[in-house]
Amino acid sequence: MIPSLKKLFPSPVFRIVRVLVLAYLGLVGIMLIFQRQYIYYPSHADSATLEAEARQEGLVPWLDAQGGRIGWTYSSPDGSEGTLLIFHGNAGHALNRVYYTERFGRLAKRPAFREIRLFEYPGYADRAGRPSEATFVEAAQHAFDELIGNPSSSGPHYLLGESLGSGVATHLAASRGEHISGLLLITPFTRLSDVGQVHFPFLPVRLLLRDHFPNAQNLEHFESPVVILTAEHDGVVPARLGRQLYLGLDGPKQLFEIAGADHNTLFHRVPTKTWIEAIQFLRAGD
What we know:
Blueprint: H1 5-8, H2 12-39, E1 41-42, H3 47-56, E2 60-63, E3 69-75, E4 83-87, E5 91-92, H4 98-104, E6 115-119, H5 133-148, E7 157-162, H6 164-176, E8 182-186, H7 192-199, H8 205-208, H9 215-218, E9 226-231, H10 239-247, E10 253-258, H11 266-269, H12 272-282
Helix pairs in contact: 5-6
């Protein structure tokens, strides 16, 4: 029997649909395999360069119990009591956030904290490891446990999470909440898949993602104060995700949306009085 012409020569529409389906499946496969390259953008530098830059900024190495450098510390004997632990966003490295030590180191003519610690992620700067949610959280928990177990550490302890760093901060809030006196979250999100869905609305992001950073879930039982800062024109993490996170909080909370700011300009657009109000709110229970 001779096959019909339709079977031998599928319609042009069928061929187009088949090409589109195969292309879509190929794109899904690429995103599945290389997704972490779209999430993490570490910068690297040699140890000598980093240490010279840190000295210039008045920072000293933050070492773990084994003597490995896991970040940087700014100390001020004239500062208010307490330690602020900073988890930066997904790009650059910890020393790129020295502006936090500059800001909080002279807030209202007095340092806002006795210590400010810039935590470095595995796989960033000169720190060994591969970036992922699991490696970030494990390293952060290890560092925090050593910090609160050190008698010389200046308590109470506060966390600042910037963008992706908000996911690390809320993981600690969920697992070490009794030791955390407050959270300052800058351009946070509800969960990472919600951010991914904004940028890739045509992909099943929630099914593909291996790293989740579920901020809303992590904060369900957190009872200490939380301050959230969002940027009005944030094209990376839409401000509505920060507002949704805020609305879901049951404990003490405060929200600031910075008019005219985007994801990368927010810090420099926050008025000094807003920083002061935010820190006062966090420290109200001290």
